[in-house]
Queue: 4 jobs
Job 1
Amino acid sequence: MVLTERSPEVIEFIRDALDLPTGSEILEAANLHEMLSQDLPFQPDIILKAGEQFYLIEVVSKVASLDTIARMQLLRELWRHKGPGVPEMVLVIAARTIRPRAEQLAEELNIRVIHLPWTPGLPLKHEYRPSKSRITTEKSWKVVSRLLKEKSTSIRQLALREGVSYGWAHKTIGTLIEQKIVERNDSYVRIVDVKRLLNGIAWERPMKNLKIAEVPIDFSESIPAARDISYTLERQKIPFAFTGYTSGGLYTRYAVRQDAVCLYLEEKHLDLFEEFFGEPSGGGIQAWVYAPDRDVFTDTREIEGITVASPAQTLLDLAGLGYSAMDLTKAMVDIYVAL
């Protein structure tokens, strides 16, 4: 199945993400032109109307850029220019990928961002239903990963063990119950559908969104590369942590990807990293560099002389790699209690 901008599957997914009723009206662009009494240099892909609220939606098949945000912001200004009495509207970008900096700017401008499934053949609705409450935020993931480790426990214990408020833990578990990922028995909760959980993570927080560079490096194998990089960056006092395939392989001993290493690095250190390790000829293997969206450097571990992200962070990142890392992700889940 190919996802087109106005396909019924995409519209249904967006409606679910915005928590709109199925009966919300789909308007044509001509309606928008008529309301604004002017032609626009562009038009939103989808216009939904629920009650008195209008949702102007731009659907991006690949990567949403700063240009996408600029167009939406211009549309808002043209809308507001009509003066008092114009209907309320909400700007929405629905994209498979959006860079962290662009997503942060969208949030600051009060533009909603919806992450569409990356895999074209993946069912849009049945594996994971979008929710207002995200399970991959830093605090929510503390609750979820703790429940994975404890197997069965109370919400209060989850909150206490991870240092989050009871209200936050309760909200997170409530979302998981709605998604049929967790079930509650009296005061205890447990995860009953790990596959659905992993799919939800891949949709909410795809690692593609965090990747800032693919740097060719002059190494033939990933483990020696990661070890040398760890040695150098530690002595330069540059924060970093290997993650994804690299840390997952080291934790599980299941498999180690030899054609690439995956690491977190702040964007301000990228030029120095390329100066130290970049191979202009393009030989060797790849370093996949990700910009952290949370604190990933505090709770690191060292395995075989390599600084790796914590088990909780590694599991989150592996799930965010989607189906290409599914076997390794499942292996990580299997041993997670012991880590």
Note: Residues 66-80 form the longest helix (15 residues).
Job 2
Amino acid sequence: MAYEIDAREIPEDWPYGYLPLGAKKPAQSPSDIYTGWTLDTIKFDLNEGLSKWAYQKTKDAPLTIGKETKDFEKLFKNYPNAQKDPFVTMGETLSSSTYWHGKLLNQWANDWVKLYSDKNKNFMTSNMEDSGTLTALQRLEHAGLVKTNRVMVLRTVSNYTMPPEGQSASWSTTAPYPEQGIPAFETAYTVGNIVVDEIVKEWTEMKLNIPSAE
């Protein structure tokens, strides 16, 4: 949820045309976002101990991609993490109903995550579902039907949110997903299934006590 001004009309000293609800300009520090009205559906903090438990269970999961994906990754030669084999990690994800794209909006995404969490956090993946899902679960918790401290979020990566050097944002926005995004689907099963199996196996204990890791 945000205000937006078309990029052709933003003031010259603004880095982008998005600004928080209630703000007069793009926010530069956490204190800037609480000067006006806002919503309780902008940010969701997960149970850190539970998230780390899931990470510990899955961090060594065997992940694979095909030649087409590897060739596409080579375009991002100036980004060391893009050159690595697939791996499991932890980080922040940002939801949007707009399929935004490009280097400048990546800057907005990273600024936005830092504003609503803390300066040590970094935007890692985009999504279009999680804030809606978490909003629904939050309201179900208010009705006493679920416990949001048991919520986990798994994202798998199928494409990039900005182009490699030498390519335009418009090219990258509509570039085909390598292997039609199938490695991301397979990874979601591989990683998610490890956690689900563990929960089912240990449900007698876990229904009473939420697992946690330091």
Note: Strands lie at 3-4, 18-19, 92-95, 123-127.
Job 3
Amino acid sequence: MYDPDLRIQEVIRQIFHRFRELGSARQVLLAMSGEGIHFPRPSHGIRLTSFEWQPIRYRNVISVLKNMFYAGVYAYGKTGRQAKIRDGRAHVTYKNCKSPEDWDVVIREHHVGYIDWDGYERNQAQLAKSAFGRAGGVKSGRGGGALLAGPLCCARCGRRLHVVYTGRTPRPVYRCDNPNLLL
């Protein structure tokens, strides 16, 4: 189901096209932000009646790539409630993600999508392959003395710290590469 706003349609199509071309959500972000492309953000919160166009962010790219709605799929019941006993009292939490097999309704080809189902599955496989810290992924840990490489973030900019081994007897040094990035 396409948005009636042609500008929104175009930015969504560009995200899928660039991901197919570049193979990485981060590279899509860098390419699109380098060209000054903006992404719509609702200006009235819940009501999607008007938008403010702001510079595209990583979460915009990821949310489009991971949302099966853009592949023409309608899904209902992806989250549920869960009740647990804590300190002798019932504690109910909502928005607990269910596995796809437990969803209440999934209808493929429900509406016209920006990509087909096979394209969506290829995108998910590519995202999973390049996910940070996943076993077998291209960015998964490769061993070494730097055990905190994944969870440590820069106190100044918030990005993940990178590890560099220095010295005659290689010792890990954590550093921020923020000055070297385009953003």
Note: The radius of gyration is 20 Å.
Job 4
Amino acid sequence: MTSPRPAGIGSANVRMGIGLYLTGVFFFALNDALGKWLVTDYSVGQLMLLRSVGAAVVLVPMVWHLRIDLFDFSQWRLQILRILCMAGDTFAFYYSTRTMPLADVMTFYMAAPLIITALSVPLLGEKVEPFRWAAVVAGFVGVVIALQPSAALFSSSSPIALFGALMFGLAVTVTRRLRRTHWLPLVVWQFAGAAVIGGATLPFAWTTPDWFDTGLMFLVGIVAMVCFICITRALAMAPAATLAPFQYSAMVWATLMGWLVWRDVPTLPIIIGNAIIIGSGLFVFYVDRSARPVPAE
């Protein structure tokens, strides 16, 4: 039995999936920037709990309106694995940014497309063509050029950042396996798991936030919720290996945010790195746009 060939970008569903994934990655970058700011003054567990409360403000009315069954545990093992992976990813990212420069943490996390592409073969049975591997590797080279990681890349927090990247890559792969499950229960239980894990840490670390920071934590929850809704729906429409190279667009968004909000003028390495990242994505789009889904037998 041969592995199915991923649907090409000629497929309307796959194009929609790529669009949703790019949107999700934008909110992913925004979530990272806000979270990095907040964990300077608050514990990681506290942020995980309060951002889940913020997400619940929007998710609860969605559940009420859509009347989706949240207790369909037909694939409960995969769902629990996904919840743990997402919580591990969130905790590791925020924790590592407390002791490492954001650029170094992002270097680890931008290895996720390599992890997703590698896992998509044994766990999803997807066929990864050489041009996809080339695009993923080229994109990672662009990330390293743009970020210019410091010596802190090899600090004691490095294993935590690497663990977070592995958890994110595995979570994306499991989400693709659960593509026939409605997106709403996946997102709801993901935030519920993060709230439980974050809440368990509160007896050890709690700083009472003011109203502004409380609202900002709730906003992080809403931003993260939109991010994961988009990514979850994208993975229901397109193969993980097809979407993986577009994860690098987070670097482009981060550069634009730094320029527009903080007036950080992009340096030459950042411009070159982002050009490579954009080029790798356009390369995948160009090569794959003429592909068509394999007809069902």
Note: The CA atoms of residues 46 and 202 lie 6 Å apart.
